[in-house]
Each structure stands twice: as C-alpha cells, then as structure tokens.
Specification:
The protein is an alpha+beta fold. The protein has helices at about 1-20, 75-85, 85-105, 155-225, 230-245, 245-265, 290-295, 300-320, 365-435, 440-470; strands at about 55-60, 115-125, 135-150, 285-290, 325-335, 350-360. The protein is built from ten helices and six strands, in the order αβααββαααβααββαα. It is elongated, with a radius of gyration of 37 Å.
C-alpha cells in the first residue's frame, strides 16, 4: 500500500509541475522504412498476355475514381448510383456526422455555463421552528435567478476528453472512406464476376450442344454396330455432368446480380444491373503502386486504427486527470419577493460568488488502476495498429504477385485456346476433305470450348486482381 501511495503522490507531483494537460501527447507511429512489399525483388510489371502487359509505377498518384480505368460506362453508372443510394455508406456518413456533433458538444465545456430559472411557490412558514410562539403564516414567494459556472481545466482532463472526441471523428471519417472503397471494389468485382459467369454459361451451353450432337452420332453408330455401346454410355455421362454445371453457374450469376442491386441500394425485384461483357471492359495497363511509407498514411483501415490509437492515448490523460483536484468557479444572482409587483425592487436582490475545489482523498487503488487500464487499452490499440499495417502490406504483396501470376496463367490459357482453335480448324478442313469423321470434329469442338472456359476464368481473375490492387492501396480517396 505504501508503494501505491508513493506512486500516486509522484503522479500528482509531476502533474503540478507540468501545469498543462496530463497524460501523453499523441505521436503518430513511424511509417515502415521498407520500399518493397515482397521479400524478393519486385517486378516492374507483368509479362505480355491477352490485353497487354501491366506496368507497376512506383509512387505514382492513384486516381480517386480508379474504376474508370476499366473504361466501361456501364460500370461507372453502377458505381455512381451505388454511392448515392447504398445504405451502408449512408450509415457510415451518418455516424461521421454524429461524431462531429459530439465533438462540437464537447467543446461546450470550455465556455461558461449560464442558466436561469423562475420559481413561483406558495409556502407556509412556522415560527415555532425558530423558537417563536407566534402563529404560522401563509404567503407566495416568487424567485427569479441566474447562475454562471465555469470549469477550470487545470490538469487538462477536459482537454483530453475533447481530444478523444476529435479522434473519434477521425475514426468515423476514415471508416466512411473505407466503406466507400469497399463499395467500389465490391461493385467492380461483382461486375467482372457477372461477365465471367455469363461467358462461362455461353461456353458451357455450346459444349452441351456439341456433346448432344456427339451423343446422337455415337448412338446411331452403336445401333449400327460400328462402335461399342460403352462409348455411348460414356458420352451420355459426360453430357449429363456438363449439363449439371449450368444450374450452379446460373445461380451464381443470379446471386451476383442480386448483390449488385443491394450495393446500388435497390431491391432485387425492382432493379436489374446492366449486362456487361468482357469486351466492355478494358484492362488497366499502368498501375500506380504507393510506397509502404505512403500506404500507412492513406489506407482507411490503417488510419482508423491510428485514430483509435489516438483516442486510447487521450483516455490515459483523462484517467490521469481524474487523480488530480478539480476546480469550479460559480456565481448566482437572483430576485425574490412575496409579490410580483415588488420582485424587481432593490430589496429583493440576492447573490453568491465562490469557487469549488474537489479532490479525491481515499478511494483505494481505484483511480490508479483505472489509469493502468487506460494504458493497457493503449497498448492493445497499438498492437492492433501494427497488425493492421502488417495485414495491409501483405495484401498489397499478394495483389502484386497475383497480377504477375495472372498474366502467366492467361498467357498459357491463351496459347491453349489458340492451339485448340487451330486444331479445330484443321479437323474441320480434313472433315470437308473426307479424311476424318464427324465424331472427330465434335471432339475438337469440345476441346476448344473447354480451353475457352479456362481462358474466361483466367481473364476474369486478372481483372478482379487488378481491382484488388487498387483497393489494397487505398483507392486514392485522398486525391478526390
């Protein structure tokens, strides 16, 4: 217990010597010194694939409307409509306004508080209470009074409280920017996914058509005894398996369209998103890549974590100031009279003026450990901030690697598609020359469509990973 009181007296002594707001002054955490996101040397771009090569421009400016780089008017229209109508974004903006109003309200503590009251009462006075034998009297009493009070924030507890409110404004502001970034990223992903699902459905339907033709030809051959019956059973199994992939694709497409309607703030039954094909989208070629030191000053989730850290720092000051005395100045002036006609006479006036000092004396370890708890909360916020930074750096590294591998995958899929197309062309030419049968044509068509499915998936993945890079970098909201 002696150590506890010694610590308390030490804190009190330091506060008196400081003469300013107690508690730590917030200092932003240092930015990462690294200039790279990956352990190995980062490439300057991707290899050339379908749609061209993508170049990574270190330290280049990110456009706030980064989705316009896909050069799709339909996509732009959906984003603008969603920004205007999305309930999640509206809720984030309302939370921001609420925090701003709370901050304005908090500043009121620095102004004198003035109040007024008028109190008409009817009373019975008993002289016996004061040792007199005269009878009681009944009278009216009218009291008009004003009070003025002012808090002397000697140790800065109120200033730290307002500082914490300001940090909460930052939390809500960056949360709103994060909601805006998430919304735009989800819309681009959903638009690309819808285009991919539509293309996959078209390709799968063509495969089903080819398999149906192939099944009919094989059935005729099996009846004629040219091929064994097991060949027909294999084709029927393949046809049924391929047809079974269509309902999930249609469900995923419907789900994506419903998601787009929700993001746009519309009911799924009242609004249908525009039909976007891959041909409507342009792959962005020049991709700006912020340095890690810039990333921590522009990603909304990192800035939210930093603002929460600031708020936790201010709460240490609030908890520390609670251990010190508090001072108030107050004054009152009023008039009272038994009749309204004499209420404003000189004899009716009364006033008081004074100061109040309140200080904690013996409260056990409550205040000390409340301050310790505030310090622990700050350490927790600091760890959360560091984790948020690490996750953000990893997300950017993942996006850069993904784009590099997407280009390689798309190049391989493109080569496979071109080879399948060339093989189909040769088979068709040989069929016209009578050197191959129609069954071989159908097989070549099926292989081509399978290669086309792989190409579609690789194309969609590359577009989505491009959007993911912009989101990982913060989306450029600070350049708006």
């Amino acid at each position: 217990m002696r150590a506890y009181f010694s610590a308390v007296l030490g804190v009190l002594g330091l506060g008196c010597l400081a003469g300013c707001a107690v508690g730590p002054d917030f200092v932003r955490p240092d930015a990462p010194a690294s200039r790279h996101y990956t352990y190995e040397e980062e490439p300057s771009g991707t290899i050339a694939a379908e749609g061209g090569a993508q170049r990574f421009e270190r330290g280049a400016k990110i456009a706030a409307d980064w989705w316009r780089l896909f050069n799709c008017a339909k996509l732009d229209a959906v984003v603008l409509q969603s920004v205007a109508n999305n309930p999640t974004l509206q809720a984030a903006q309302a939370s921001l306004r609420q925090s701003e109003d709370n901050l304005r309200a908090g500043y009121g503590i620095f102004y004198p508080q003035l109040g007024a009251s008028f109190q008409p009462t009817r009373q019975q006075f008993s002289p016996a209470r004061f040792g007199q034998s005269s009878g009681p009297s009944i009278f009216n009493l009218y009291t008009l009074s004003t009070t003025v009070s002012y808090v002397l924030d000697v140790f800065g507890g109120e200033r730290r409280t307002v500082e914490g409110l300001g940090a909460q404004v930052d939390v809500q502001y960056y949360s709103a920017q994060g909601a805006y970034l998430t919304l735009s990223g989800n819309i681009v992903n959903a638009i690309v996914a819808a285009a991919a699902y539509s293309a996959e459905i078209d390709a799968t339907q063509q495969i089903v058509g080819f398999l149906e033709e192939q099944t009919n030809v094989t059935a005729a051959q099996a009846r004629a005894g040219i091929v064994p019956y097991v060949n027909l059973l294999s084709l029927q199994t393949q046809l049924a398996t391929t047809e079974a992939t269509l309902p999930p694709l249609r469900q995923q497409l419907a789900h994506t369209r419903h998601l787009l309607a929700t993001l746009a703030g519309q009911a799924s039954a009242d609004w249908s998103p525009p039909q976007v094909r891959f041909s409507d989208l342009t792959l962005p070629k020049d991709l700006p890549v912020s340095l890690p030191s810039e990333l921590v000053r522009q990603r909304p989730d990192i800035l939210v974590a930093e603002a929460q850290l600031h708020s936790a720092s201010a709460q240490i000051g609030v908890a520390t100031a609670a251990m010190f005395p508090s001072f108030d100045l107050n004054a009152s002036y009023g008039l009272n009279s038994t009749a309204l006609s004499t209420l404003f006479s000189s004899n009716a006036a009364f006033w008081t003026m004074g100061a109040a000092l309140a200080t904690p004396l013996i409260q056990g370890p409550t205040l000390w450990y409340q301050r310790k708890a505030a310090i622990d909360a700050y350490q927790q916020s600091l760890a959360n901030y560091r984790q948020t930074v690490l996750a953000a750096l990893a997300q950017v590294a993942d996006a850069l690697d993904a784009l590099e591998h997407d280009a390689e995958t798309l190049k391989a899929q493109s080569l496979a598609l071109n080879s399948a197309a060339e093989a189909l062309h040769l088979i068709q030419a040989n069929y016209e020359a009578g050197t191959v049968n129609y069954l071989q044509v159908l097989i070549a068509d099926y292989q081509y469509q399978q290669a086309n499915l792989g190409y579609i998936q690789a194309m969609g993945q590359r577009l989505q990973d491009t959007a993911a890079l912009f989101v990982a970098l913060g989306g450029g909201w600070w350049t708006a």
